[in-house]
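User: Please go through the entry that follows and flag anything odd:
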Amino acid sequence: MLAVMLKTRNFMTTAEKFKVWLETIYISHKTKNPLTTGTQYVTGLNALNKQFNLPGEGIYDVNTNLNHIRNLIDKPENFKKDYSSHFNAFVKFRNYSIERNNKNTKPLQRQVDIFKKQQVEISAIETTIKYFEGLDYIVISKEKDNVGWDLEATNINETLLLEVKGLSGNISSIELTPNEYKNSKEKKTHYKLCIVTNALTNPRLEVFSFNFDTNIWTNELNETLQIEERIGAKMWKQ
């Protein structure tokens, strides 16, 4: 009997992260929007790696001196095709990555006059971002867009819709707005409920996904969320 082992890769290469960043966060100077596809830019950097015979990951290597690469690109004898826009975009990506890493290594900064609820929400969002970035997702905020979830986490294979709920103590119950609840039902495949408990003391994240076999929301420990639908009303004085 022939045994076959499939090796899976659950992380993105720097080139793949760069491509996702181009398609989600980067703002094109021409269109004022992210790129439809970042493949052309990745291809451009690969061409520079080959042209300059750079070892290993070349430009993508975190230890590569980008100023040195810039000097090589600017030399007339090296000019074959203009990849300067591709390279400039990667410099922005490198700076973005450094900024995110620095932010994750520093304690969460809060003003002393922020209400406790706001502190809990900030901690919950940061905890969730850090967790998914650790899984090689690029995370962007959708908090101000009123789309029905707080964050979008994207890698080379998928985009997850993350609704974040923060609690100052242990998990008891959470509430979803009508918009959040509607989207949790309509977009079950990619929708995640991210509940952060003890947000101000020792944040602990639990990620609940919809289990299509049992038709219930479960986390990695097979703990479940029970749902109680409520009907509300708005009343005003005439």
Remarks:
- Residues 14-105 form one domain.
- The helical segments are 14-24, 39-51, 66-74, 84-105, 116-134, 178-186.
